[in-house]
Design a protein that fits this description.
single chain; about 300 residues; alpha+beta; 2,3-Dihydroxybiphenyl 1,2-Dioxygenase, domain 1; 8-stranded mixed sheet; 5 helices; 19 strands; about 15% helix; about 35% strand
Length: about 300
């Protein structure tokens, strides 16, 4: 299994440059290995309002309704604790369908007295930040309409400004919604990873998979997407610069899904992965490849 792209074959000059990943690509299930399955499941059900959508004795799938399992929890009490400086999950990001739903999500957190770790206006979105009981980062956010996303020097502009949480709470129109769970339209909007090196990250996620860079202005971070979205993947080295690839089997991120809209779109990406000399572990819907930092990426169709 390759842990770096440093020795991957380079396409010949005669080979056409690979095109971008299909613009309808989206993020799918995020799998987390946890030590206390019951406790973490209860958090996602009560504090975030997700519901069980199947599973086995050692794993639980959690959904909101329309987009299949958003999170899969894999119980493993004997797994190694994760080093917070190693590559892995920075946060998973649940996208609410609108601002009203984000307000209800904030009210639900307040009802359960679950602490926020941040609340930001990113110009393209409004976001709440917290962690689950085992320290896995979570963002809950809503997008502004795409036509309102600001541009700077011809590229997307994002920022991190304080979010007025009292104003947001004031948008809760029906308090009974707090106990009704997350809206069925909730989906996995993006995944933000800790990585060791941004150049290697760009080479894998853009050069091989075909995502396109949207924002470079954040020091120590890179944001990439499909189809002009502000980002499907965040990549940062804030705590993990120069760290070795993460070993398999520890607590935290196990894998996440990149969902291609058609079999042909999936085949195009798998072909690029193969040409880069990377190993692919077969999966029923596609295949799993590891990025240079040991993070599992499952490429599959919808």
């Amino acid at each position: 299994m390759h842990s770096s792209l440093a020795h991957s074959p380079t396409p010949s000059a005669a080979s056409p440059a690979p095109g971008p990943i299909d613009p309808a690509t989206r993020m799918g299930t995020v799998r987390l290995r946890v030590a206390d399955l019951a406790r973490v499941t209860a958090f996602y059900e009560t504090v975030l309002g997700l519901h069980r959508a199947g599973g086995e004795s050692d794993r639980v799938r959690l959904s909101a309704g329309e987009h299949g399992p958003l999170i899969e929890l894999v119980g493993d009490p004997s797994a190694r604790p994760r080093d917070p400086r190693s590559p892995g999950l920075f946060h998973l990001a649940l996208l609410m369908p609108d601002r009203d739903a984000l307000a209800v999500a904030l009210a639900r957190l307040a009802t359960h007295r679950w602490p926020l770790e941040g609340a930001s206006d990113h110009l393209v979105s409004e976001a709440l930040y917290l962690s689950d009981p085992e320290g896995n980062g979570i963002e809950i956010y809503r997008d502004r309409p795409r036509e309102e996303w600001p541009q700077q020097d011809g590229t997307l502009a994002m920022a991190t400004l304080p979010l007025d949480v009292q104003n947001l709470l004031g948008q809760v129109g029906d308090p009974s919604l707090i106990e009704k769970g997350a809206p069925a339209a909730t989906r996995m909007g993006h995944v933000h990873l800790q990585v060791s090196d941004l150049q290697q990250a760009e080479q894998f996620y853009c050069g091989v998979l075909g995502f396109e860079v949207t924002v470079r202005r954040y020091p120590g971070a890179l944001f990439v997407s499909a189809g002009g979205y502000h980002h499907h993947l965040g990549l940062n080295t804030w705590h993990s610069a120069g760290a070795p690839p993460r070993a398999a089997g520890g607590l935290g991120l196990q894998s996440f899904d990149v969902v291609l809209p058609t079999p042909q779109a999936l085949e195009d990406v798998l072909t690029r992965v193969s040409r880069a000399g990377l190993d692919v572990e077969p999966r029923a819907e596609g295949g799993l490849v590891r990025d240079p930092f040991g993070n599992g990426v499952i490429l599959r169709t919808a």
